[in-house]
Amino acid sequence: MKCRVCGEKAFIKLHYPKMYLCADHFVEYFERKVKRTIERYKLLKPNEKVLVVVSGGKDSAVTAYVLKKLGYNVECLHINLGIGEYSEKSESYAKKQCELIGAPLHIVRVKELLGWGIGEVKTRRPTCSYCGLTKRYIFNKFAHDNGFDVIATGHNLDDEASFIFSNLMNWNTEYLAKQGPLLPGEGKFVRKVKPLYELTEREVVAYALAVGIEYIIDECPHARGATTIEYKQVLNELEEKRPGTKINFVKGYLRKRHLFEVELKKVELKECKVCGMPAQGEKCSFCRFWRLEKPIDLKI
Question: What is its cofactor (predicted)?
Fold first, then answer.
C-alpha cells in the first residue's frame, strides 16, 4: 500500500482515521496530534519547566522526545523501583533514551532511599497499590522541591480507556470524577498532564520505531494478572470490530464527567507532620506506609 500524502511505500495503516502513511508523514501526523492535544486541553505553556517521568518504556520516552522536539523545556526523572534485574534494565533504557532526546536525567532509587525495593516489603497491601503510591509521591515531591511547573506522564489512549472502563465496571465514582488529560495543581500538588491522551498504544509503538527510540519490552513481574490488562484486551477486540471505539468512549466520558463530580467530596487536607506534604491525617499515606520519622531529601 502507498502513503496517502506522498505515494511512497506505506509504513503504517491507521484504522481510525482509516489511511496509510509513510514513516515521515506518520511522524508528522503523530506530532501534530500531540500538539493539538496540548492546545485543546491547555496542558502546557511556553517556557514552563516540564518534568517527564521516564520508566524506560515506550510511552514516557515518546512523551519526552515529542515535547523536546516541540520546543518545551524538558527534564526527566527515572524512579528505580528496586525490582532486581527488571529495574536495572529499565534504568539502562531510561539513560539511553535521555541521551537520544538530549534531556537531563535525574534518578531516584527506591531501595537506596527507603531501604526496601518494591515487592520486598512485608505487607498485606497489594504490591501494585503501594508501588503506585510510592511513585506518585516521589515524582510529585521531586517536582515540587525542584521548582518544576508541570509533570508530564506517558499515559496513552489505551491506558485511559481501560482505566475508565475498569472504574465504570466497579462504579468507582470518586476516581471517575478526577480523570482526564489534565489534573490541575493545588498547593504542593504539581499540575499533571498527559500529552499522549488521544494516541493509541499501537501508534506510540510505531512512532518509537520510526524515530529510533529503544525501550524495555519486559513487563513488570508484579503486573502479571492485573485486571487492567484484561480490560485492554476487551477494548482491543471492540476496536478491531469498530475502529474509533476507544477515542469515542474516552471523549464521551469527558463530556459526561461532570455527572460523577457531584459525588466528589472535598477533603480538607492538612500538612504531614513528617514531610510537610498534603495529608488527610497527621501523616500522609506515603510516610505512614514507609513508617518514616523524617522527610526524604529529593532536592537536586
Answer: [4Fe-4S] cluster; Mg(2+)
> Cα(first)–Cα(last) distance of the chain, in Å?
51
Judge whether 287 is annotated as a binding position: yes
Find out whether 272 is annotated in a ligand binding site. Answer: yes
Q: Select from 196, 146, 259 the least CA-distant residue to 38.
A: 196
Q: Is 98 annotated as a binding residue?
A: no
Distance CA 129, CA 151 (A): 21
The strand order across the sheet containing 191-193 reads 105-109, 73-80, 49-53, 150-152, 191-193, 182-183
Let me know if 73 is exposed, middle or buried by CB neighbors in 10 A (0-12, 13-18, 19+).
middle
CB of 158 within 8 A of CB of 246? yes
* 131 assigned to a ligand binding site: no
| 31-265 fold | Rossmann fold (3.40.50)
The pLDDT, as a whole number, for residue 167 is: 93
Closest CA to 69 of 28, 13, 117: 28
Check the annotation: does 22 bind a ligand: yes
**Are 298 and 289 spatial neighbours (Cβ–Cβ below 8 Å)?**
no
Domain ranges across the chain? 31-265, 266-300
Q: What is the pLDDT of residues 223-243, one digit of tens each?
A: 765 677 889 999 999 999 999
Distance CA 212, CA 99 (A): 12
pTM of the prediction? 0.94
E strand or H helix at 51? strand 49-53
Q: How many CB atoms lie within 10 A of CB 170?
A: 11
